[in-house]
Specification:
Blueprint lengths: L5 H8 L4 E3 L1 H10 L16 H4 L3 H33 L4 E7 L5 E7 L7 E2 L15
Antiparallel strand pairs: 1-2, 2-3, 3-4
Helix pairs in contact: 2-4
Length: 134
């Protein structure tokens, strides 16, 4: 369905959406931890079996591995945000799917008037408004 404004298109697709300013988006980029980190659990980490005899080393290397995945993901999110904003300056960032704790499960970028004209590109990224707990 084609809408008259980007906001109408966004609310038609996700009625609980909020618009994020560029500053709010950058804040979310800095604070969000991807919800899909593969090896978040030490015992499920692919190198755990090789290092389990030296527990201190296994724990530290696991932490470094997870931190690297988080940094790589945040860099991808930031790259996507920059590209979306540069290619469609009239578009806007949004958060949707409000959770009981006040946070939002998904972040995206609305660029078109059709319900389907949005870019996710932020898989695993949520948004918690200032003052809300998560």
């Amino acid at each position: 369905m084609k809408h008259d404004t980007l906001m109408q298109a966004q609310l038609s697709a996700y009625p609980d959406s909020i618009v994020l300013t560029d500053i709010q988006m950058m804040d979310a980029l800095r604070k969000s931890k991807p919800d899909w980190i593969k090896y978040d659990k030490l015992k499920e980490w692919r190198y755990f079996e090789y290092l389990k005899e030296d527990e201190w080393l296994a724990v530290r290397l696991h932490e470094v591995s997870v931190d690297a995945q988080i940094d790589e993901t945040r860099a991808r999110w930031a790259r996507n945000a920059f590209i979306y904003k540069a290619e469609t300056p009239n578009g806007f960032f949004y958060a949707c799917c409000k959770q009981p704790d006040g946070s939002y499960k998904f972040v995206g970028f609305r660029y078109g008037l059709e319900d389907s004209e949005y870019a996710s590109g932020f898989d695993g990224m949520g948004y918690t408004p200032e003052g809300e707990s998560k």
